[in-house]
Amino acid sequence: MSSASSSQNIHPTAIIEEGATLGADTRVGAYAVIGPDVVLGDGVKIHPHAVVTGRTQIGDATEIFSFASIGSQPQDLKYHGEPSRLVIGARNMIREHVTMNPGTEGGGMLTSVGDGGLFMVGAHVAHDCIVGDNVILANNATLGGHVTVGSFAILGGLSAVHQFARIGTHAIVGGMTGVEHDVIPYGSVKGDRARLAGLNIIGMRRRGFTREQIDGLRRAYKAMFATTGTLQERVDAVAEAEGDQAAVMEIVDFIREDSSRSICQPRDDAD
Question: pTM for this one?
Answer without folding.
Answer: 0.95
